[in-house]
């Protein structure tokens, strides 16, 4: 098993780009990860990485070995999943990712309950508002809000979520409440955007009488953390476009106010995406079923004020 462990560390270092990230992911120290790479290089008689101050880049030998090593690990995972399906005792590790706000409100709190139900399944949750490449980074399930365009992934829709434009009473008193979407641009309202490398949020799409219309709004600052945007809105610094369940508590206590209710943003799809082969894994199916049911109930309860 030591050789397979070395291969597994090598694969994660390639996927995550450095020893520290791979070590955290596999729950070993960077020193142990480094030693396993050295053992593998000694066994193969070649250098697998070119080392820089920030990142390990695979050599030509490393790229060739990664392709075969990944296939070996995938084959073992599939074989274990097949045995688990026959035995009715799913076990192993699931790597999950979700946006920060969604993950904190809906996903994270459900992980311990899922583990209580299926104690032989470990879950490693990564929260990020960045666009995570789930194939490259070895993610099993990604919970997402928005359009899923990657045809190499499968999608399980969980629910369609209403979105709203909201701002604080303080902001609206200072800047005036827009009565028509054109005023967002014409009166140069501060529209706060979620942006990060690879982000596509450069406009808001609103439901107008003539159909869906894109508005290229602007603001004085943006962030790659959706909860930061909510904090800015609460502080009176601008207007945000959010799934209603994320801001409903602030709407109820009147810290935020819905604006332009007759021309709301288009709804956003809440879904889970995963590589095609992962649906064959019983532990992934169990997690999808568990989280879909749980998240639907949580969102309904939030919107009902429970």
UniProtKB/TrEMBL annotation:
InterPro entries (UniProt xref): LysR-type_TF_proteobact-type (IPR058163), LysR_HTH_N (IPR000847), LysR_subst-bd (IPR005119), WH-like_DNA-bd_sf (IPR036388), WH_DNA-bd_sf (IPR036390)
Keywords: DNA-binding, Transcription, Transcription regulation
Regions that span the bilayer: none
Keyword Transcription carried by entry: yes
Boundaries of every HTH lysR-type domain copy: 1-59
UniProt cross-references to CDD domains, sorted A to Z: PBP2_CrgA_like (cd08422)
Recorded family membership: Belongs to the LysR transcriptional regulatory family.
Name assigned to this protein: LysR family transcriptional regulator
Taxonomic source organism: Mesorhizobium retamae
Lineage: Bacteria, Pseudomonadati, Pseudomonadota, Alphaproteobacteria, Hyphomicrobiales
């Amino acid at each position: 098993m030591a050789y397979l462990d070395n291969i597994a560390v090598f694969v994660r270092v390639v996927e995550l780009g450095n020893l520290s990230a791979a070590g955290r992911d596999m729950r070993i120290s960077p020193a142990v990860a480094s030693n396993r790479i050295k053992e593998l290089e000694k066994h193969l008689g070649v250098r697998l990485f070119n080392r820089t101050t920030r990142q390990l880049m695979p050599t030509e030998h490393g790229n060739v070995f990664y392709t075969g090593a990944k296939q070996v690990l995938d084959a073992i995972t599939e074989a274990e999943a097949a045995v688990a399906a026959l035995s009715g005792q799913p076990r192993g590790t699931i790597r999950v990712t979700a946006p920060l706000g969604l993950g904190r409100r809906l996903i994270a709190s459900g992980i311990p309950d899922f583990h209580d139900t299926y104690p032989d399944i470990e879950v490693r949750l990564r929260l990020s508002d960045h666009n995570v490449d789930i194939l490259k980074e070895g993610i099993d399930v990604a919970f997402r809000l928005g359009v899923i365009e990657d045809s190499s992934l499968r999608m399980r829709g969980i629910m369609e979520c209403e979105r709203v434009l909201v701002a604080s009473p303080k902001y609206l008193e200072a800047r005036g409440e827009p009565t028509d979407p054109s005023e967002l641009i014409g009166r140069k309202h501060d529209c706060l955007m979620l942006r990060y490398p690879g982000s596509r949020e450069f406009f808001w799409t609103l439901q107008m009488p003539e159909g869906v219309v894109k508005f290229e709004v602007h603001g004085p600052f943006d962030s790659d953390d959706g909860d930061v945007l909510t904090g800015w809105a609460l502080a009176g610094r601008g207007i945000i476009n959010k799934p209603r369940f994320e801001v409903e508590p602030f709407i109820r206590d009147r810290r935020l106010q819905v604006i332009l209710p007759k021309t709301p943003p288009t709804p956003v799809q809440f879904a889970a995406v995963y590589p095609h082969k992962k649906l064959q894994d019983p532990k992934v199916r169990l997690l999808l079923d568990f989280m879909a049911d749980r998240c639907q109930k949580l969102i309904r309860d939030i919107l009902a004020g429970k």
